Amino acid sequence: MWPFSSKKVLEPPEPYFSKPWRNVTENYPRDLDFVKSYQPQNKDVKHLRILLHGPVGSGKSSFINSVETVLKGRVTGRALTDANSGSSFTQKYTAYEIHKDPDSFYSVIFNDIMGFEQNTEAGVVVEDVKLAMRGHVSDGYKFNPVAQLQETDKDYKSSPTLEDRVHVLVCVIPAGSVSLISDKVVEKLREVRRAAAEMGIPQLAILTKVDEACPEAENDINETYRIKYLKEQVDKFSMLLGIPPNCIFLVKNYHSETNTNDDINVLILRALRQMITFGEDFLNNL
Fold first, then answer.
1. Which among 94, 97, 90 is positioned nearest to 58, based on CA atoms?
2. Domain boundaries in the chain?
3. What is the mean pLDDT of each run of 10 residues along the chain (286 residues)?
4. Closest C-alpha among 17, 12, 7 to residue 230
5. CATH 3.40.640.10 fits 25-285, yes or no
6. Measuring CA to CA, how many Å separate 90 from each of 60, 116, 187, 211?
Protein backbone atom coordinates (compact mmCIF):
# COMPACT_ATOMS: atom_id res chain seq x y z
CA MET A 1 0.00 0.00 0.00
CA TRP A 2 1.36 3.36 -1.00
CA PRO A 3 2.14 5.55 2.03
CA PHE A 4 0.76 8.65 0.31
CA SER A 5 -2.47 10.54 0.95
CA SER A 6 -5.01 10.57 -1.84
CA LYS A 7 -6.03 14.11 -0.89
CA LYS A 8 -5.19 16.70 -3.48
CA VAL A 9 -2.76 19.35 -2.31
CA LEU A 10 -4.22 22.79 -2.99
CA GLU A 11 -1.86 25.24 -4.63
CA PRO A 12 -1.81 28.79 -3.23
CA PRO A 13 -3.78 31.23 -5.41
CA GLU A 14 -1.86 33.09 -8.08
CA PRO A 15 -1.16 36.59 -6.66
CA TYR A 16 -0.95 38.30 -10.06
CA PHE A 17 -3.33 39.17 -12.86
CA SER A 18 -2.09 38.07 -16.29
CA LYS A 19 -1.72 41.73 -17.27
CA PRO A 20 -1.85 45.08 -15.42
CA TRP A 21 -5.35 46.33 -14.67
CA ARG A 22 -4.00 49.87 -15.12
CA ASN A 23 -1.10 50.61 -17.43
CA VAL A 24 1.08 53.40 -16.07
CA THR A 25 4.59 52.64 -17.34
CA GLU A 26 4.05 53.76 -20.92
CA ASN A 27 2.81 57.18 -19.74
CA TYR A 28 5.90 58.01 -17.65
CA PRO A 29 7.72 60.48 -19.96
CA ARG A 30 4.48 62.24 -20.91
CA ASP A 31 3.32 62.45 -17.29
CA LEU A 32 6.63 63.98 -16.22
CA ASP A 33 6.56 66.55 -19.04
CA PHE A 34 2.93 67.39 -18.30
CA VAL A 35 3.53 67.99 -14.58
CA LYS A 36 6.67 70.05 -15.13
CA SER A 37 5.09 72.31 -17.76
CA TYR A 38 1.64 72.69 -16.18
CA GLN A 39 0.21 76.20 -15.83
CA PRO A 40 -3.40 76.93 -14.78
CA GLN A 41 -5.44 78.40 -17.62
CA ASN A 42 -7.61 80.33 -15.17
CA LYS A 43 -5.88 83.69 -14.86
CA ASP A 44 -7.27 84.25 -11.35
CA VAL A 45 -4.84 81.70 -9.91
CA LYS A 46 -1.11 81.12 -10.20
CA HIS A 47 -1.12 77.74 -8.46
CA LEU A 48 -3.35 74.70 -8.26
CA ARG A 49 -3.95 73.93 -4.58
CA ILE A 50 -4.15 70.26 -3.52
CA LEU A 51 -5.22 69.40 0.03
CA LEU A 52 -4.17 66.05 1.47
CA HIS A 53 -6.20 64.56 4.32
CA GLY A 54 -6.49 61.18 6.01
CA PRO A 55 -5.79 59.26 9.22
CA VAL A 56 -2.67 59.75 11.30
CA GLY A 57 0.37 58.05 9.78
CA SER A 58 -1.14 57.56 6.33
CA GLY A 59 1.79 59.13 4.49
CA LYS A 60 0.52 62.62 3.58
CA SER A 61 3.77 64.44 4.35
CA SER A 62 5.81 61.63 2.79
CA PHE A 63 3.81 61.94 -0.43
CA ILE A 64 4.66 65.65 -0.63
CA ASN A 65 8.35 64.79 -0.18
CA SER A 66 8.03 62.09 -2.82
CA VAL A 67 6.52 64.50 -5.38
CA GLU A 68 9.33 66.96 -4.71
CA THR A 69 11.84 64.10 -5.09
CA VAL A 70 10.43 63.19 -8.50
CA LEU A 71 10.45 66.78 -9.76
CA LYS A 72 13.91 67.62 -8.43
CA GLY A 73 15.52 64.30 -9.34
CA ARG A 74 16.97 63.83 -5.86
CA VAL A 75 15.59 62.56 -2.57
CA THR A 76 14.17 65.38 -0.40
CA GLY A 77 12.57 65.59 3.03
CA ARG A 78 11.23 69.10 3.51
CA ALA A 79 7.87 67.99 4.93
CA LEU A 80 8.82 66.54 8.31
CA THR A 81 7.64 63.03 9.13
CA ASP A 82 7.88 60.71 12.12
CA ALA A 83 7.49 56.96 11.66
CA ASN A 84 7.27 56.35 15.43
CA SER A 85 4.62 58.88 16.33
CA GLY A 86 1.32 57.45 17.55
CA SER A 87 -0.39 60.79 16.97
CA SER A 88 -0.27 63.31 14.16
CA PHE A 89 3.23 64.66 13.62
CA THR A 90 1.85 67.49 11.45
CA GLN A 91 0.44 70.14 13.78
CA LYS A 92 0.10 73.16 11.49
CA TYR A 93 -1.66 73.97 8.24
CA THR A 94 1.32 74.05 5.93
CA ALA A 95 1.56 74.97 2.24
CA TYR A 96 4.40 73.50 0.19
CA GLU A 97 5.57 75.09 -3.03
CA ILE A 98 8.24 73.26 -5.01
CA HIS A 99 11.11 75.21 -6.58
CA LYS A 100 11.49 74.78 -10.34
CA ASP A 101 14.65 76.87 -10.25
CA PRO A 102 16.05 79.46 -7.79
CA ASP A 103 13.61 82.10 -9.06
CA SER A 104 10.39 80.20 -9.79
CA PHE A 105 8.07 77.48 -8.56
CA TYR A 106 6.02 74.71 -10.12
CA SER A 107 2.35 75.61 -10.46
CA VAL A 108 1.10 73.15 -7.82
CA ILE A 109 0.82 73.79 -4.07
CA PHE A 110 0.27 70.98 -1.57
CA ASN A 111 -1.41 71.69 1.74
CA ASP A 112 -0.68 69.32 4.62
CA ILE A 113 -2.89 69.05 7.69
CA MET A 114 -3.05 67.21 10.99
CA GLY A 115 -4.36 63.65 10.59
CA PHE A 116 -7.72 62.28 11.72
CA GLU A 117 -7.88 60.18 14.88
CA GLN A 118 -10.59 58.03 16.42
CA ASN A 119 -10.55 60.02 19.66
CA THR A 120 -12.85 63.04 19.45
CA GLU A 121 -10.31 65.07 21.41
CA ALA A 122 -7.36 64.24 19.16
CA GLY A 123 -6.47 64.88 15.54
CA VAL A 124 -7.79 67.55 13.21
CA VAL A 125 -11.35 68.85 13.66
CA VAL A 126 -13.53 68.14 10.63
CA GLU A 127 -14.83 71.71 10.60
CA ASP A 128 -11.26 72.99 10.21
CA VAL A 129 -10.85 70.85 7.10
CA LYS A 130 -14.04 72.36 5.69
CA LEU A 131 -12.75 75.86 6.45
CA ALA A 132 -9.45 75.02 4.76
CA MET A 133 -11.26 73.89 1.62
CA ARG A 134 -13.06 77.23 1.49
CA GLY A 135 -9.76 79.08 1.91
CA HIS A 136 -10.41 80.49 5.39
CA VAL A 137 -7.34 78.93 7.09
CA SER A 138 -4.03 80.81 7.03
CA ASP A 139 -0.75 79.05 6.35
CA GLY A 140 0.91 78.23 9.67
CA TYR A 141 -2.31 77.88 11.67
CA LYS A 142 -1.77 75.43 14.54
CA PHE A 143 -4.68 73.02 14.77
CA ASN A 144 -6.55 72.66 18.05
CA PRO A 145 -8.00 69.12 18.36
CA VAL A 146 -10.74 70.28 20.74
CA ALA A 147 -11.83 73.54 19.08
CA GLN A 148 -12.26 74.70 15.51
CA LEU A 149 -10.89 77.91 14.04
CA GLN A 150 -13.15 80.87 14.77
CA GLU A 151 -13.87 83.95 12.64
CA THR A 152 -12.37 86.11 15.37
CA ASP A 153 -9.01 84.26 15.33
CA LYS A 154 -6.01 85.92 13.68
CA ASP A 155 -5.47 82.89 11.43
CA TYR A 156 -8.99 83.12 9.96
CA LYS A 157 -9.17 84.57 6.43
CA SER A 158 -12.49 86.36 6.17
CA SER A 159 -12.33 87.04 2.42
CA PRO A 160 -10.41 84.22 0.74
CA THR A 161 -9.57 84.45 -2.94
CA LEU A 162 -9.84 81.66 -5.49
CA GLU A 163 -6.09 81.22 -5.02
CA ASP A 164 -6.66 80.53 -1.29
CA ARG A 165 -9.31 77.88 -1.88
CA VAL A 166 -8.65 74.17 -2.33
CA HIS A 167 -9.00 72.98 -5.93
CA VAL A 168 -8.45 69.24 -5.40
CA LEU A 169 -9.06 67.07 -2.31
CA VAL A 170 -6.97 63.91 -1.93
CA CYS A 171 -7.60 61.25 0.71
CA VAL A 172 -4.46 59.35 1.74
CA ILE A 173 -4.69 55.84 3.24
CA PRO A 174 -2.08 53.07 3.69
CA ALA A 175 -2.91 50.22 1.29
CA GLY A 176 -2.60 47.63 4.03
CA SER A 177 -4.89 49.47 6.45
CA VAL A 178 -8.08 49.84 4.43
CA SER A 179 -9.88 47.19 6.48
CA LEU A 180 -8.50 48.59 9.74
CA ILE A 181 -9.85 52.14 9.54
CA SER A 182 -12.08 52.75 12.53
CA ASP A 183 -15.75 53.62 12.05
CA LYS A 184 -15.15 56.99 13.68
CA VAL A 185 -12.41 57.93 11.22
CA VAL A 186 -14.50 56.68 8.29
CA GLU A 187 -17.32 58.92 9.51
CA LYS A 188 -14.96 61.93 9.49
CA LEU A 189 -13.66 61.09 6.02
CA ARG A 190 -17.20 60.81 4.68
CA GLU A 191 -18.21 64.12 6.26
CA VAL A 192 -15.28 65.86 4.56
CA ARG A 193 -16.15 64.13 1.30
CA ARG A 194 -19.75 65.35 1.46
CA ALA A 195 -18.61 68.91 2.17
CA ALA A 196 -16.19 68.85 -0.76
CA ALA A 197 -18.94 67.54 -3.04
CA GLU A 198 -21.18 70.45 -2.02
CA MET A 199 -18.35 72.84 -2.96
CA GLY A 200 -17.81 71.06 -6.28
CA ILE A 201 -14.23 70.16 -5.36
CA PRO A 202 -12.95 67.07 -7.24
CA GLN A 203 -11.78 64.18 -5.07
CA LEU A 204 -9.22 61.45 -5.48
CA ALA A 205 -7.46 59.00 -3.18
CA ILE A 206 -4.02 57.44 -2.98
CA LEU A 207 -3.26 54.17 -1.23
CA THR A 208 0.29 54.48 0.06
CA LYS A 209 2.88 52.03 1.38
CA VAL A 210 2.07 49.36 -1.21
CA ASP A 211 5.43 47.73 -0.52
CA GLU A 212 4.48 47.26 3.14
CA ALA A 213 1.04 45.95 2.22
CA CYS A 214 2.20 42.87 0.31
CA PRO A 215 5.48 41.04 -0.37
CA GLU A 216 4.91 41.01 -4.14
CA ALA A 217 5.09 44.81 -4.31
CA GLU A 218 8.06 44.88 -1.97
CA ASN A 219 9.84 42.41 -4.23
CA ASP A 220 9.06 44.31 -7.45
CA ILE A 221 7.30 47.67 -7.26
CA ASN A 222 6.90 47.59 -11.04
CA GLU A 223 4.26 44.86 -10.61
CA THR A 224 1.99 47.03 -8.43
CA TYR A 225 -0.92 47.19 -10.87
CA ARG A 226 -0.80 43.43 -11.51
CA ILE A 227 -1.17 42.42 -7.87
CA LYS A 228 -4.62 41.08 -7.01
CA TYR A 229 -4.42 42.00 -3.31
CA LEU A 230 -3.82 45.68 -4.12
CA LYS A 231 -6.72 45.74 -6.59
CA GLU A 232 -8.90 44.29 -3.83
CA GLN A 233 -7.85 47.12 -1.50
CA VAL A 234 -8.73 49.71 -4.15
CA ASP A 235 -12.19 48.15 -4.54
CA LYS A 236 -12.69 47.93 -0.76
CA PHE A 237 -11.78 51.57 -0.26
CA SER A 238 -14.05 52.57 -3.14
CA MET A 239 -16.95 50.83 -1.43
CA LEU A 240 -16.02 52.31 1.95
CA LEU A 241 -15.88 55.96 0.90
CA GLY A 242 -17.67 56.01 -2.44
CA ILE A 243 -14.70 57.25 -4.49
CA PRO A 244 -14.71 55.52 -7.91
CA PRO A 245 -11.85 53.04 -8.47
CA ASN A 246 -10.53 55.09 -11.41
CA CYS A 247 -9.95 57.95 -8.94
CA ILE A 248 -7.89 55.80 -6.56
CA PHE A 249 -4.16 55.38 -7.15
CA LEU A 250 -1.47 53.14 -5.70
CA VAL A 251 1.85 54.69 -4.69
CA LYS A 252 5.02 53.95 -2.81
CA ASN A 253 6.48 57.00 -1.09
CA TYR A 254 10.21 57.51 -0.83
CA HIS A 255 11.16 56.26 2.61
CA SER A 256 14.42 54.32 2.92
CA GLU A 257 15.80 55.13 -0.54
CA THR A 258 18.72 57.51 -0.99
CA ASN A 259 18.48 57.63 -4.79
CA THR A 260 15.52 58.13 -7.11
CA ASN A 261 13.87 55.15 -8.78
CA ASP A 262 11.90 55.28 -12.03
CA ASP A 263 9.50 52.53 -10.94
CA ILE A 264 8.53 54.55 -7.86
CA ASN A 265 8.32 57.75 -9.90
CA VAL A 266 5.91 56.19 -12.40
CA LEU A 267 3.31 55.53 -9.71
CA ILE A 268 3.63 58.98 -8.14
CA LEU A 269 3.41 60.81 -11.46
CA ARG A 270 0.34 58.90 -12.63
CA ALA A 271 -1.50 59.96 -9.47
CA LEU A 272 -0.19 63.53 -9.61
CA ARG A 273 -1.17 64.04 -13.24
CA GLN A 274 -4.74 62.99 -12.48
CA MET A 275 -4.88 65.39 -9.54
CA ILE A 276 -3.78 68.23 -11.80
CA THR A 277 -6.20 67.26 -14.55
CA PHE A 278 -9.16 67.17 -12.16
CA GLY A 279 -8.11 70.45 -10.54
CA GLU A 280 -7.72 72.14 -13.91
CA ASP A 281 -11.23 71.04 -14.88
CA PHE A 282 -12.55 72.47 -11.61
CA LEU A 283 -10.90 75.85 -12.21
CA ASN A 284 -12.10 76.03 -15.81
CA ASN A 285 -15.69 75.22 -14.84
CA LEU A 286 -16.01 78.01 -12.28
1. 90
2. 25-285
3. 56 87 90 96 96 92 94 85 51 91 95 84 87 96 90 96 98 96 94 97 98 96 97 98 97 93 96 98 94
4. 17
5. no
6. 9, 11, 21, 23
